[in-house]
Amino acid sequence: MPTDLEIARAHTMEPIGAIAERAGIPQEAINPFGKHIAKVGAQFLSEIEARGKKGKLILVTAINPTPAGEGKTTTTVGLGDALRRLGKKVVIALREPSLGPCFGMKGGAAGGGHAQVVPMDKINLHFTGDFHAITSAHNLLSAIIDNAVYWGNPLNIDTRNIVWRRVLDMNDRSLRQIVTNLGGATNGFPREAGFDITVASEVMAIFCLAKNIDDLRERLSKMYIGQTLDKKPVFADALQTVGAMAVLLQDAIEPNLVQTLEGTPVFIHGGPFANIAHGCNSVIATTAALNLGDYAVTEAGFGADLGAEKFFDIKCRQTGLEPAAAVIVATSRAIKSHGGVAKADLGKENLEAIKTGLANLGRHVENVRKFGVPPVVAINHFSGDTQAELDLIIKICKEEFNVDAVICKHWADGGAGAVGLAEKVIALAEGGSAKFKPLYETDKPLAEKMKIVAKEIYGAGDVSFAAAAKKQLADIEAMGFGHLPICVAKTQYSFAADPTLLGAPSGHVVSVREVRLSAGAGFVVMICGDVMTMPGLPKVPAAYTITINDKGEIEGLF
């Protein structure tokens, strides 16, 4: 069985100019990065936005992830290719992979098998340098803050209350909490600080929510960095560095164009994690895909309790985007995992575990409907699946959840393996049944919004706030930001804040330990349970097996 990388390497890619032409992008509007990657210019994007043409937006989400794997990106790619086979003009919009998971445990985000985007090795590594630009812009502000304190502290910043952390696009638990400016007076004033992973940066969130460079600049200026000694808020515009940050981001903000193995145009742009950020690719890329295609197929990170909820309540609320349908990805193996089966036993047929584990899928179906979006279930097929299990999933989905479930074989067969799913998506999208609405109104107090999400989406009985979180909530509301939507940071593995509570737990208490204001991004982050904004590496990181062979080719990436 060839690896994803071997499948990608054996494929002959089309020149990026041909992909641009297929998408309706003129050659003068692209800036090629080699033969198979290009950035698309802002002026052209502005011109197509002015035309007012909009395709139908399809969101791909999933059940809570398990060690068995679900294949959400793979399904997104397979669906896009399948829609093209049915005569639709399609543009896919995905997130850029982070180096942290690539060298850690989760892997990349380019799909897999015969449903992937290429060149997958470059996409999963440095790509066009967008993440480096975001990291540099974020850390420039970090440096300017400490520099201002060093040179007499004219803003009267309280170094005990600087909330702006540094970032790095790598899993490194040793940097979560640090002390900076050691080594004497010439190095500054020592203080506690820390690092988040780049995908958790507010600059990343702003990058993905900004409509253009002007909106980006305005949002950057609103970022909250801490307090003065007399308890007044300090925002990024006071540090006089927003212009320089925008300069670092001016090329990165143009979306990246690549292709699937079947030649479907794909924008890959931005990459916030859904368990610690809002988990969606850039508004610029999604809007461009809608302006260019009959269908724009996009995804939101992790399960629908995280990525999809934030897609609806943050991204769609801020931009006016209205999805026509949603695809919820599941596998028989993942369903059995939620039914209590150990990873080593997932290859064995277990109908009782299927019945138990389907509670997780059922809640996601119910939750998506709460936003007025019609769902369909994609059962991502694995070679070891038994027909009895697949038949049972389809039966229960129809009889108990009133949703169609479609067996998809795009990993093995490319777009041809997802035509059945594409037909269901077209029927939903063109049936006009979508009546999108956010879950809550933003005029409610922040704590009330958190309780609504916890009870309606997670099935929780209540929410508890640590003493520090209560004070942070009060401070944020006192500053006038209580009207913002919330962005919940919690484990991706469960509806609860406890990753061991699989299936569809109910009545649990979601604990909020910290609250962070992302005023520029336009949301308030609720950090729950033990989730970390700087992940650590596993005991055996993927980096151990990644190398370059004698031919100069990458091995072990996937």
Summarize the structure.
Helix content is 36%, strand content 20%. It has 558 residues and is α/β, with parallel strands linked by helices.
Distance between the termini: 12 Å
What is the domain tally?
Answer: 3
Uncertain regions spanning at least 5 consecutive residues = none
Give the biggest sheet.
12 strands, mixed
* CATH topological fold name of the largest domain: Rossmann fold
The amount of beta strand, in percent, is: 15-25%
Rg on CA atoms, Å: 23 Å
3D structure, described in words:
This protein is of the alpha/beta class and 558 residues long. It folds into 3 domains: 4-121 and 252-431, Rossmann fold, CATH 3.40.50; 130-249, Domain 2, N(10)-formyltetrahydrofolate synthetase; 446-528, Formyltetrahydrofolate synthetase, domain 3, CATH 3.10.410.10. It is 36% helix and 20% strand. The strands form 6 sheets. Strands 1, 2, 3, 4, 5, 6, 14, 15, 16, 17, 18 and 19 form a 12-stranded mixed β-sheet that branches. It has a 4-stranded mixed β-sheet with strand order 20-22-23-21. A 3-stranded antiparallel β-sheet has the order 7-12-13, with no helix packed on it. Helix 7 (130-150) packs across helix 8 (202-209), helix 13 packs across helix 14 (351-370) and helix 14 packs parallel to helix 15 (387-400). The longest helix is centred in the first third of the chain and has 21 residues, at 130-150. The radius of gyration is 23 Å and the shape is globular.
